[in-house]
Design goal:
Number of domains: 1
Number of helices: 4
Distance between the termini: 18 Å
Order of helices and strands: HHHH
Helix content: over 70%
Largest sheet: none
Length: 115
């Protein structure tokens, strides 16, 4: 249940960031689909693996790089500036989200595994 709450928070923040930055260039459906994709892949790779093993300073950079590269690969109509802006906004949001993940998700799941 704790992962679903974290995924919900992450999805909302990613969706808002993408809606602000790319909605003028793509449809609402594409923004929604890209948000789901970035949320699921970013949560598993960035929040559960990179954050846990590389730390809070590396994880937002990895998230931003993922969003930037994936955005450029998925949508060729993406401009470089829009891609960088999306990645930057998501990296800033992720910085705060990683505090939540460290306190609520990683500590809770580590405590459950030890018991």
């Amino acid at each position: 249940m704790i992962h679903l709450k974290a995924l919900g928070i992450k999805f909302i923040s990613v969706f808002i960031a993408l809606f602000i930055t790319v909605n003028f260039a793509v449809t609402f459906y594409e923004t929604l689909l890209m948000s789901v994709l970035f949320t699921l892949i970013g949560y598993v790779l960035g929040d559960l693996i990179v954050l846990k093993y590389a730390g809070k300073f590396v994880a937002p950079i990895a998230d931003a790089a993922f969003v930037w590269v994936a955005g450029l690969l998925i949508y060729q109509s993406y401009t470089y500036l829009v891609s960088v802006l999306s990645a930057l906004i998501i990296a800033i949001v992720e910085w705060f989200f990683h505090d939540y993940v460290e306190r609520r998700v990683l500590e809770t799941t580590a405590g459950q595994g030890a018991g």
